[in-house]
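Problem: given the chain below (271 residues), write out its structure.
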Amino acid sequence: MHERISVHQMCFAGARLCDYVRQCRTLGARRIGFISPALLAPGGLAEARAALAGGDIAVETVAHVFRAGHLSSERNEWRESRESLARLIDIAAGLDARSIYMLTGGHGGLRWEDAADCFCEAIAPCVEQARAAGIGLAIENASALYAEIHIAHSLADTLTLAEMAGVGVCIELFFCWAEAGLPALFARAMPRCQLVQLSDYVYGDRSLPARAVPGDGVIPLRDIVRSLLGAGYAGTFDLELLGPRIDAEGPPAAVARAATHVSELLIHLGA
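Solution.
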C-alpha cells in the first residue's frame, strides 16, 4: 500500500479497535484514522496504544463530532462539547496523531453566520491547545443530509468557516467532487489542508452512504488528484469506505482493491 494512503476506522465500522488495527496491518497500511468515540471511551487510549504497539502504523487522523446536537448561542449548552474536544486533543497527542477533523454541530434555528460564530467561539481555546500540542485541527465538508450535526456542506463554505475559526480543512471528495471551480478551491485550501478523503460514486446510487471502491464509479479521481498534487498537496489520502456496496463485497476485500487502485494512481502521478 502506498505510504500516502491511510485506512479509516469507518471502513470497519463495528469492529473492536484492536481488530480494526489488525485488519489494517494485514492489508499493509502504514497510516490509519480513528473515530473519537473509541478513544474517548474508558480505556480507549490504552487499547489504542496496545493495538499500535510495534510502531509500524501511524495515526494519521481522528474523526470527531464536536457537538451531536445543534449549535447554540447559549455557552452552557456547548461547554461539555468543548471539554470533550480538549480531552481528545490530549489523547491524539498521546498517540502522535497528525490531525483531528470535525463535524461542527447542527444548524438548529440559527442563520449560518450565527451558527458559524457560535462554533468559532466554542472551539477557540481548543484551537490554541491543538496548536501547542502539534495537532492539526480541521473541519470537513459534508452533505446537507447531515445538517443536524454539521453546518459546512460545500467545500467553499467549509473553507470560509475554517478561515473564520483559524483551523484546517479535511477535503471529503465524495461530497464536493461535482462542485464548480474545484482547482481554485483546492488552491485556496492548500495552506490549511490537513487531509483528503477518497471514495467513489456510481450514478443513480441512492443507497446512502452510497460509497463505492475508487475506480468503480464516476468520480474523475485521476484529474482531481492531479489537481490536488499540482496545487501543492503533500499529505495523506484517506480511504473512507462504507455503505451497501462495501458491505456486500466485504470491507477487507473492498479496502484491498481501493488501496491497489489508489496506490497505482499515486505512483502514476508521481506522488
